[in-house]
Write a structure and sequence with these properties.
Blueprint: E1 5-8, H1 14-26, H2 38-45, E2 56-62, E3 68-75, E4 93-101, H3 110-124, E5 129-134, H4 139-148, E6 151-152, E7 158-160, E8 163-171
Parallel strand pairs: 4-5
Antiparallel strand pairs: 1-2, 2-3, 3-4, 5-8, 6-8, 7-8
Helix pairs in contact: 1-2, 3-4
Length: 174
């Protein structure tokens, strides 16, 4: 097993992370392409902009050579989460979005490591739950999330244009 490290991304890495995420999302079968949702892909390209919000972190998984293998945006305050639906009104909650693993690093547990780091951050910050969203094109990740303990929450579902987006919760404090 390789030794991976999860840390905050450096501003000098933001552009590379954006390119990785665009590559990941644009290749998902059934996920809208750049010409269908240009603003979504512009957001991915400018992923570092999320770090301008308070209590928002861009986390990266790197190997021993400091190669970026994957990334996720962690929101300790849901008002900055930036999704459709009601998620941004959830109080005492954290969330993460835009998790992506480089195609060269798939199957090595990188997505799970990033997810577990977000759970740890939310726990350390005494959040009552962690909220995420996914789409049918990301169904592979659903199994991982559910195995970790996320539960589907239909009240968090919304439509992003023609794309149904599905909400999940991970209870931290009951």
């Amino acid at each position: 097993m390789n030794n991976y490290n999860i840390r905050n991304a450096n501003p000098s890495e933001f552009e590379e992370i954006g390119k990785i995420l665009i590559n990941v999302y644009s290749k998902l079968e059934g996920f809208p392409k750049e010409e269908e949702q240009p603003n979504y892909y512009k957001m991915l390209a400018n992923i570092g902009d999320f770090t301008k919000h308070p209590e928002t972190e861009l986390l990266v998984a790197v190997d021993e050579n400091n190669t970026i293998l994957g990334a996720v945006v962690y929101f300790n305050d849901m008002q900055y989460y930036g999704s459709g639906g009601t998620a941004t009104q959830e109080k005492g909650s954290a969330g993460f979005r835009l998790l992506g693993v480089d195609s060269q690093a798939r199957g090595k547990g990188i997505g799970k490591l990033l997810t577990l780091e977000c759970i740890k951050k939310a726990t350390d910050n005494k959040r009552k739950q962690l909220i995420i969203h996914s789409t049918l094109a990301m169904k592979t990740a659903w199994k991982m999330y559910e195995n970790i303990g996320f539960k589907r929450s239909e009240d968090l579902d919304f439509m992003q244009g023609e794309l149904p987006v599905f909400g999940f919760r991970y209870q931290l404090i009951s």
